[in-house]
Each structure stands twice: as C-alpha cells, then as structure tokens.
Design goal:
By secondary structure, the chain is an alpha+beta fold. The chain folds into three domains: 31 residues, no CATH class; 214 residues, Distorted Sandwich (Adenovirus Type 2 Hexon, domain 4); 169 residues, Jelly Rolls (Sandwich), CATH 2.60.120. Strands 13, 15, 18, 19, 21 and 22 form a six-stranded antiparallel beta sheet that branches. Strands 1, 2, 4, 9 and 12 form a five-stranded antiparallel beta sheet that branches. A four-stranded antiparallel beta sheet has the order 3-10-6-7. Strand 16 and strand 17 form a beta hairpin. The radius of gyration is 28 Å and the shape is globular.
Length: 439
C-alpha cells in the first residue's frame, strides 16, 4: 500500500533537519513558522515637541537660571527647537525696547555642560554676539518675520516701542541656533544624540536692565526698576529611533563614541582710555582650528545707560586695522578707509560681508547696509579658513601663534571697549557614561 502524499511531505521536511539542530528551531521549520523581519522603512518611530522646564518658572534681572534636560533616549533636532518665555518690564510708566538687538539682550552669559560635568560651551557677552550674528546673517525679511518673534523691531533702533513699562507680558521665542553656537552642528541636519542631550546642564546669567533695554520716553527711566520673566522653558523637537537603529548607535557610542562637531566662541575684551588711539588686543586662546574672528568697538558710557543702545558700535572712525596670527597678516596690508574719503568704511564693510559668506551667496544678503555699517553696526572681520569651500579648514592658534587685533582710531573722546569674538571648531565625543571635548 502506498504512503499518502501528505504523510510523505511531512516525512521529507523532518528528514531535512539536521539531527543536532536545536529542537525549537526544528519545530518552527516543520510548522512553517520561520519569518524574516522586513527592513524598516524609516529610522524614526516617533517625533514630537516636548517642553523642558527650568528649575524655577519665574526669574528677574540679575538672577541665574538653571536647567537639566530630561530627553531620555530621544534625539534632539536643534534646528527646530527654541527657547520660549514671557517678559514684562517692571515700573510705573514709559516704554522701552531692545534697540538694535532682540530679546537675547537679557542674556549676558550661557554655559552648557554635559551630564558628566564636561564644559561643552561658554559664551560671554552672549547678547553682543547674538545681535551682530543675526544682523549680518539674515535679511530684512527674516528679521521682520521670525526675527520679530525673537524680539527684533521693524527698524532695529530706538524708535521701536515694543515693551511698556508696567504693562503686561510679551512672548518671545528664540531659536536654539541663535541662543548658543553649540546648537549649530557643522554637519547640516545633525541631531544631538541622547548620550549628549540627556542631562544637558545649561546656566543662563541675565543682564542688568539698563544694559539690556533702551528707554524711548521723553523723560527716560520713569519708574523703570527691572524686568521679570515667566513661563521660561525650552521647546525641543525630539525624535525616537527604531530599536535596531538605537542598538547600532549605542554600540558605536560604547566603542568609539558619537562625534558631534560644532563651533565655539571665545570672547576677548580690551579697554581703550580717553586719548588712546592705538590698541593692540590679543586673543589668548589655544585652539587647533580657528575659523573666523570679528571685533566690535563699544562706547563704555553706553553700556549701563538706559537712554542709549548699549550694543551699538561707535560711529566708524577707524584709521587703520589689521589682524596678525604669528607671521600671517589679515589682510596682508592694513585696511585704511576711515579718513580722507567721502564714504567711510567701504572696504571694511566688504570684509565683513566676505567673512559672513555673503559675497559667494548674493541671494542671501545681509540686513546691514553701508550706511548702517558706519552708524553703529561696524565690525572688523577676518576669516582664517584655508579653503572657503571646505569645513574644518581653520588655522591653529597657540602660545607661539597668538591672534592679535591691531587698530588705530582717529580720535577717542570717551572710553571704549573692544570686544573680539573668536570662533573655532570643537568636537564632542559622546560615550555611554561620559563625554569628551577636543578643541
């Protein structure tokens, strides 16, 4: 008698399994329960905005705000994240504004540390840096739209009455890439890994009101006593990845570390006394890749004056200026366009546009005009990139190659402050339990 077909099929399947194979695996094969996991169509399984709150909800001028991010295993997109707060000016009457700056005027210093205590970024005179970066980077259209939410006025001068003394709260949203250079990865679109973002410790020191604000009333400082902030928090764009992707990145983090490359800012400040027309300011910071440097000259009498814009540069009166790095000079011959010409500062203005990469990209022009440059928005800029088409091609600065800014003014009738910002490249390596930074 012949064996039934079904029984014969089962016998064949069993015989194909090796005798020393695992019993469970054999049972799965016999019962046709062996499946292959299909490849994921996306690396992310979830994306959402989450609020990260500071230790307190309310702050006043002169205080320090502290926050520790609790992002868990999510990746953070700094490009789509922002700092949000409500602000009101304390007093009885009058109106004030941020002058040529924005709500970043109230932030004097930002310090960012990893959960293991490694200092990732520190920006001193953060409000001066943010004001100049925004004015030179963005167009008028951007500053009048998204910039308005950040606190920029339509004219960006003292005619913009944006805040009422003793009035209600005004809401401001500052994008993270305007808040600190740490949130500007050199690789476009790079996310903050959870090994770096989770437990991120941020400290904010607030500026005094006479420096941060400009009083535009006919009788200045009427009732102005300070400012108050509430609903202070970060809104972060957080992304959860698939288990397979997370496992792969965790293994790389444990073995070699996850690299996050970003710019950092070092601030050097020199003072100029009355009658001192020649200044040599040294930027003593040892870095392996210095990218750019730019200097603004402020009037010291305006720094704590509520009737003046504390962040406006002095009217352009530079007779000559030049940077020196070791035996290199930028430019090779000093720039002299501050005297004896009908249109001041034109060559210095072009150098500023070159440093902010506006000459190569005319479709993304700056909001600073040549007239604005002379009247309060002048910068002395230098690019130390060896190749403008490449990233990470800066020059080293160390004890034997000190960066020096030499400037000669036509006349100095009041004390001045020369503030230089050196931008250099930093690389953070995030491991499972700690973080290391190389500059």
């Amino acid at each position: 008698m012949s064996v039934p077909y079904v029984e014969n099929q089962r016998t064949t399947q069993v015989s194909s399994v090796s005798a020393d194979a695992d019993t469970k695996a054999a049972d799965l094969m016999v019962n046709n329960l062996v499946y292959k996991q299909p490849s994921a169509l996306s690396l992310a399984v979830n994306r959402t905005y989450k609020r990260q709150y500071f230790q307190r909800n309310d702050y006043k001028n002169g205080e320090t705000a502290v926050i520790d991010w609790n992002t868990g295993t999510d990746y953070v997109d700094p490009t789509n994240s922002y700092l949000r707060f409500d602000m009101r000016v304390l007093g009885t009457s009058g109106s004030v504004n941020f002058g040529s700056g924005s709500a970043m005027n109230i932030i004097r210093q930002v310090t960012i540390r990893s959960r293991s205590g490694t200092e990732l970024d520190r920006v001193e005179r953060c409000n001066v840096w943010a004001r100049n970066e925004s004015l030179y980077t963005y167009t008028d259209q951007w500053l009048e739209t998204y910039g308005a939410v950040q606190g920029f006025g339509p004219n960006r001068d003292q005619t913009d009455n944006t805040l009422t003394v003793g009035g209600g709260y005004a809401t401001f949203c500052i994008p993270l890439h305007r808040f600190a250079p740490f949130f500007r990865p050199t690789k476009k679109g790079q996310k903050l890994p959870p090994q770096l973002a989770s437990g991120l410790h941020i400290e904010i020191i607030f500026e005094n009101p006479t420096t941060a604000l400009s009083d535009t009333t006919a009788t200045p400082s009427v009732g102005l006593t300070g400012y108050e902030i509430t609903n202070f928090h970060f809104m972060l764009d957080q992304i959860a990845l698939t288990d397979e992707t997370q496992m792969s990145l965790n293994m790389e983090s444990a073995e070699t570390g996850l690299e996050y490359t970003y710019p950092r800012i070092y601030t050097a400040i020199s003072t100029v006394g009355v009658g001192e027309t020649s200044v040599s300011s040294q930027i003593r910071k040892a870095v392996s890749q210095a990218c750019v440097a730019y200097t603004t000259v402020l009037d010291q009498s305006n720094l704590n004056s509520v009737t003046d814009d504390s962040f406006e540069a002095v009217t352009f009166d530079t007779a000559r200026w030049q940077y020196r790095l070791g035996a290199l000079y930028f430019p090779h011959q000093p720039i002299e366009d501050g005297a004896g010409v009908t249109q001041l500062g034109r060559e210095s203005y072009v150098n500023s546009l070159m440093m902010f990469d506006k000459l190569k990209h005319p479709f993304a022009e700056t909001s600073v005009t040549p007239t604005d440059f002379v009247n309060g928005k002048a910068l002395h800029c230098v690019s130390m990139e060896k190749d403008t088409m490449l990233n990470l091609s800066g020059l080293p600065v160390n004890n034997s190659r000190v960066l020096e800014f030499n400037v000669q003014f036509n006349a100095v009738a009041a004390a001045r402050e020369v503030v230089t910002f050196l931008e250099y490249t930093a690389v953070s390596k995030s491991y499972i339990d700690n973080c290391a930074v190389a500059i």
